[in-house]
Amino acid sequence: xxxxxxxxxxxxxxxxxxxxxxxxxxxxxxxxxxxxxxxxxxxxxxxxxxxxxxxxxxxxxxxxxxxxxxxxxxxxxxxxxxxxxxxxxxxxxxxxxxxxxxxxxxxxxxxxxxxxxxx
Length: 119
Known about the structure:
The chain is α+β, with helices and mostly antiparallel strands. Helices cover 47% and strands 26% of the residues. Strands 2-3-1-4 form a 4-stranded antiparallel β-sheet.
């Protein structure tokens, strides 16, 4: 039997993907979130999520699958805000290391439109 990766690190991505699907289905289209980063590599994104979880609340991190240039891609979001103003304020509070990724605001409606194309 091959050695299995520890469930905690292996599962962080799948858990976030499942919770994000649930979150997206429950939010109004006008809900705003901060797009932090993305990756085409599941393992790399798992490591990034583990690092992010040490800096911020994991419960506020959302991940969804989409496509970029016809290739599978994972996008990481942070937070759930009622207004662009609240999201912009939260974006200003992000750690400097995350601001280097040039985060930007996304609406749930826009995210749903983007993900519907690839279901």
